[in-house]
Structure formats: structure tokens, C-alpha cells
């Protein structure tokens, strides 16, 4: 993940470290390299521009230029600004609701919603929560069965919906069931189309109104690069998202989405998907990610 970006930035770092003295020109050259590296990693252009402007301003300040090791000081600025870009703090899942706390999963088909629902259920079960999975994906053949199978393998309960039911009816029945059986958390998986369409957005909006989720997570495939951010923005305009899950960061994704999502959508990345397996979910730590990128 992010190997290319990391490699290129390390090259810049090496050059900076090698300079006994730094001038504004040195810094401008280094920033040009950083800019190229970020663009190649599919970081969105407005994000790159803001980032570079911010780093440049700080790096050309007296504090950095007059420091004992200016190269190191610039690297520190890049690290801090990368961390800030991704949201600084880890944003935890918020389950502070009158039980059952509802987590609504949104995203395009194939983004990893069903897999991520199961991963979250596993995580919460590990925290001794009584978790119910449910699916209203009545359009994709076998989606509900996929969730039921995953739930069974995790020994987590799954609401018994089927593809002949209407999504809103499934939602209402799930809520009723979860209340009567005292579940702590319901993870509600929804249908995802291949692209954003009005019918899909209208449906998930209605589900949102009915379920009143405390968390509405947008699941997006990091391999989509720039499109990941555009889709996140489109969903964010329809739904009050509370966070993003970036999946498939184990693949050969260039990873730019990780750096752009927060800045463009204003929503924190809460988790990253790092494998197909049910244990392949990690909390997202901006600082650690920045360190990983800078090597
Ligand atoms: P949905 O249509 O959004 O419900 O997507 P699925 O959960 O069915 O996932 C689509 C495909 O992506 C499946 O083959 C999953 O195994 C795979 N997948 C999901 N998350 C990850 C991940 O973090 N890493 C990898 N490598 N594969 C993933």
C-alpha cells in the first residue's frame, strides 16, 4: 500500500537531508517533487495544492531555515501536515445511542460493504457487544445469503430477510426485532448500484430516516483512486455521513484516496480494510499512516 508514493517521498527526504543549508530554492525544488509524487498517487488536485502551499509556507519560515538541521525540520513539517490532512486523531466508532445503536452501511456495489459489515460485527463482538447483522440488499443476487454465511461463521446473529421483501420493510422489521431482543448494535447493510443513481439515493435516504443511525459509514474501494473521493462527495451530499471506511488498501491501490477523503468530504476515515478476511479491518490512525507514507 502506498509503496510508490512512499518511495518517491523518501527520495525527496534523502535529498533534503543531504543539504547542509537550505534555501528557498531547495525547498521549492523539493516541493515540486512532492507535488508530482502526490499527483501520481491519485491524490486530488485541490488537496495537493493546499498541502503544498501549507508546507511551503511553514518550511520557508525562519524557524525551519535557521534550525540546526533544516532538512530534518522540513521533513517534520511534511509529516505534521500529512497527519493533519488525514484528520489528526483516530476517530472511533460512535455507539453512544439508546440501544440498539444502528450503523448504516452505504456505498457502491463491490466496494466491500458486506465484507466490512461482517468485519465490524466481529470487532464489536470482541468488545462483548450483542450484535445483529441485517441486509436490505435485495437487488444483488445472493447478497443476503453472503451476509448470512459470514454471520454464521462469526457466530453473530443475522436478521432473516430475503430478496422478495422491500428494503424499508426489512429495516422496520429489523428495528422491531433488535429492540425486542435487546441488541446493543445493529449493522445494517444496504444495496449498492454500479454507479450513483437517483433511485438508489432516494432509497438509502428513506432507510436513513427510518433507522436513524448513529453512524452512517460510507464504504469505498481505495483502488478507485480519484473516483473514490468523487463518490464519497456525492453520497455525502445526500446522506449525513459520519465516517468513511476505505477498503482494499492491501491491493495495489495508489492510496491517494486515503489522503484526499478527509479534506474533500470533511468526514473522517474511521477504518481501513486490509484483507478479504473477516479480521482484515484496522482503525485508521492518521499519524501512523503519515509515518508509513514517509517511511
Ligand atoms: P459489496 O458489494 O459492497 O457488499 O462488496 P463485498 O463485500 O461483496 O466485496 C466485494 C469484493 O471485495 C469481495 O470479493 C471481497 O472479498 C473484496 N473485499 C472487500 N474488502 C476488502 C479488503 O479490504 N481487501 C481486499 N483485498 N478485498 C476486499
Description:
Helix 1 runs antiparallel to helix 2 (24-40) and helix 6 runs parallel beside helix 7 (143-154). The longest helix has 17 residues, at 24-40. By secondary structure, the chain is of the alpha/beta class. It has helices spanning 3-18, 24-40, 45-59, 62-65, 70-85, 113-126, 143-154, 167-180, 198-211, 226-238, 256-265, 286-294; strands at residues 101-106, 131-135, 157-158, 185-189, 215-221, 243-247, 269-273, 281-283. 52% of the residues lie in helices and 13% in strands. The chain is elongated. It has an 8-stranded mixed sheet, sandwiched between helices. Bound molecules: guanosine-5'-diphosphate (GDP). Guanosine-5'-diphosphate (GDP) binds at residues 107, 109-115, 192, 247-248, 250-251, 273-276, 280.
Helical amount: 40-55%
Name the shape in a single word.
elongated
Q: What is the strand arrangement across the widest sheet?
A: 3-2-4-1-5-6-7-8
Overall SS class: alpha/beta
Order of helices and strands: HHHHHEHEHEHEHEHEHEEH
Mean pLDDT: 90
Weakly predicted, low-confidence segments: none
Number of helical stretches of at least 4 residues: 12
Number of strands: 8
Report the major sheet: 8 strands, mixed
- Say which molecules are bound, naming each kind only once: guanosine-5'-diphosphate
Work out the strand percent: 5-15%
| Intertermini distance | 12 Å
Radius of gyration: 21 Å
Protein name: Signal recognition particle protein
Family: Belongs to the GTP-binding SRP family. SRP54 subfamily.
Main location: cytoplasm
Binding site for GTP: 107-114, 189-193, 247-250
